[in-house]
Amino acid sequence: MKNSKIWLSSPHMGGTEQNYVNEAFESNWVAPLGPNVNGFEKDLEDYLKSDVKVGALSSGTAAIHLGLIILGVKAGDEVICQSMTFSASANPIMYQGATPIFIDSEKETWNMCPVALEEAIKDRISKGKKPKVIIAVHLYGMPYKVDEIHTVAKKYDILVLEDSAEALGSHYKNQKCGTFGDIGVLSFNGNKIITTSGGGAIVTKNAEIKDKAVFLSTQARDNAPHYQHSEVGYNYRMSNICAGIGRGQMEVLDAHVALRRKMHDFYVDYFSEIAGVTVLREPSADYFSNHWLSAILIDQTVAGLSREELRIAFEKNNIESRPLWKPMHLQPVFENNSLYYGKKVSETLFDNGLCLPSGSNLSDGERERILSVLNAIFKK
Ligand SMILES: *Cc1c(COP(=O)(O)O)cnc(C)c1O
Predict the structure, then answer these.
(1) CB of 186 closer than 6 A to ligand 1?
(2) Top mutation candidate among 166, 245, 355 for ligand 1, by most atoms within 8 Å of CB
(3) Which CDD domains does this UniProt record tie to the protein (predicted)?
(4) Is 9 within a domain?
(5) Residue pLDDT, tens place only, 323-351
């Protein structure tokens, strides 16, 4: 019999999700509004603290799109974005007809390099194009260099959209990720730290921004008995069914973060004895990562194999692993309509990095299977 597939990150239900979904059925709140939507928003606000307001939406991508609209991004504007990220961080820039300015990573957190960021801003300003917004990402749950990035943003008076899609449960200097930007974004897609099957949220300290996001996400209906619209609207609100799953997931969020961190420790332990392989780790005690995905870098000259050889060895054993996000400035879709500032840090990370199975629901047996592939490769 073939072993069942081990995923990088798969949905992990806590047990109470279905109660909330059943309640929605019993009360006939089968709609993109209702008690679960309000309850899930409240749960997230209580969890994130910092006096934030949360608006539950249909996806993280929708949250980024509405975030850019609310921060004033229009056709012809320039928007700065971390190059090494999932394409959903950058696609909404294109929805707005704006131009992405991609920025290289730094080596400690793999996120946006504050030095390259400042270079880019200075250069764009010198060309008469001051960027409208900076999209910074906490990749794999690892907080970006919050102080450094926000200092640069403040210095040049540029708004920050914080893509915290991968970082619910992470914090920096004891403040939760998602609460640093002018607007923060969360995702509850199936592979994220918690899931609503599909969903996202906008996070903000400004109640008017939340109200505006909800207004735009529900077709921008003006206050009138008939359907009256003075702005272009979207159908981006979260379903009350999905929000029910989210409420159950919030009950196990911290437990699942602890399990992801345990999985990360497993890899740190293992690779501490393997020359040429390093695990992405928190640079100091200021950083706390949910370790949504554990990721390694392989120095082929020392380790004697490439990340691709390891990936294929996993694949042969029905275990999923994946190269790091391919930087956006190298993606065909952005080739002719974007700019790039930086060196080759993100490119080198992409060439040598691999994400490993990291789910909070991996069993001891599955960890054994992962271990036996690693041993076959590294301890032969
Ligand atoms: C998943 C993800 C998104 C998009 O979220 P969806 O809910 O899938 O639309 C955006 N940015 C990053 C970094 C992500 O990982």
Answers:
(1) no
(2) 166
(3) AHBA_syn (cd00616)
(4) no
(5) 999 999 999 999 999 999 999 999 999 99
